[in-house]
Specification:
2 copies of one chain form a homodimer. Chain A is mainly alpha-helical. Chain A has a domain of 130 residues: Tetracycline Repressor, domain 2 (Orthogonal Bundle), CATH 1.10.357.10. Helices cover 76% and strands 0% of the residues of chain A. Chain A contains 9 helices and no strands. In chain A, helix 7 crosses helix 8. Chain A starts with 8 loop residues before the first helix and ends with a helix. At the A-B interface, helix 1, helix 6, helix 7, helix 8 and helix 9 of A face helix 1, helix 6, helix 7, helix 8 and helix 9 of B. The structure holds a DNA duplex (30 and 30 nucleotides).
Chain lengths: 191, 191
DNA sequence: GTCAATCTTGACGATGATGTCAAGAATGAT
DNA sequence: ATCATTCTTGACATCATCGTCAAGATTGAC
């Protein structure tokens, strides 16, 4: 069994994403990845180099899915509806699984195991892109809220989503998160 | 040099707090604590049992300081002023030091190294108390905003503070955090 | 069919952390 | 002054993880 790669890379990365999501970059070990993927540790090292390289691939896959879902949820003419959809989506996203997996981006941002700048950069990228996505939705919806205004508000909204992720980790239930998000949207979106 | 404790417990805990704040519960090792406090590892084990016990003491010290400062900052008749003070305080709190230490509570909430329920419980306690503190401020300031309304908003505000802590970790500057907080207060407090 | 390339496998060494312990030392009580 | 108590110290055993590597195996190209 050798000579050519014995595993499907996409599957391995998808499985690795699941492991990282459940355990976090720091706590997931190469052994965890090997066990979950069925690929030996040595093969993983041979194929990817190290854990962080695997993480980066998995994280890219994750952000792709996430931003796509966010864009879809936000795609409504009415800003309030868009935001409600969006919050529903991310709350389900972070409270899914048992135990809940939480938000991978937030967890990664807080993970001190970040020696390389690369990981940090990716986190900033997602947050920045999310901010832009939301900013566009806001300026498109409310003609009166344009430019700097929408951008500032977009950042506030992104910040709030990070807060929800922390609250989830602190033990708040999906229902509680939803209530907070609803209150937030009502207050901020000025609906 | 023995027979009686050779170190000042308060000083040791204060120093330990500094270490935990900079490195996090997970990443701070007993060796780090020993080096920072000047107390040998063995003595620390003898005196406290294990790392988590030391952390709990340090964290209690931290939350005491933090909630006191929060209460002081929030002690204003005008809700908007109270909130602005409060956000100023926590933003300085989390961006202080070089590199910035971030928010210990948030970091701890995300730290997966939490096997014991105790740590998690303390985190929930701080957040809960903070929520109450803010709730009181809100109901006291705005007569029209009472009961459930103030409580819901208080939780939204606590959530937002957690978001700021994450954004700080993601690399946002003190200035950026302040801008977001200001936008948030303007929008939410309905000032 | 042969061979070079490359993947797989299991073992190895290094490292860093945890928690324990026995021996030594100094204090406070009697 | 003596002694039990208790702290300190350094060493020890254990464990988990990382990253490397040589040997074996298999494939695809020629």
């Amino acid at each position: 069994m050798a000579g050519v790669r014995q595993f499907n890379e996409d599957e391995v990365i998808a499985t690795a994403l699941d492991v990282f999501w459940r355990k976090g970059l720091r706590d997931a070990t190469m052994q965890d990845l090997a066990a979950a993927t069925g690929v030996q540790r040595g093969s993983l090292y041979n194929a990817y180099g190290d854990k962080e390289a695997i993480f980066l691939r998995a994280f890219d896959q994750y952000t792709g899915q996430f931003l796509e879902a966010a864009g879809y949820a936000l795609d409504h003419a009415d800003a309030a509806t868009a935001l409600r959809n969006f919050f529903d989506m991310i709350i389900v996203n972070m409270t899914d699984g048992s135990p809940a997996r939480g938000c991978l981006t937030t967890r990664t941002a807080l993970d001190a195991a970040i020696s390389s700048t690369e990981v940090r950069q990716r986190v900033q990228d997602v947050l920045g892109r999310l901010e832009q996505l939301i900013g566009k939705t806001l300026s498109a919806a409310h003609g009166r809220r344009r430019g700097a205004d929408a951008n500032r508000l977009a950042r506030v909204i992104v910040t709030f989503t990070r807060g929800l992720a922390v609250m989830e980790r602190a033990g708040y239930s999906r229902k509680q998160l939803r209530e907070s998000a609803a209150t937030f949207v009502d207050a901020v979106a000025g609906v």
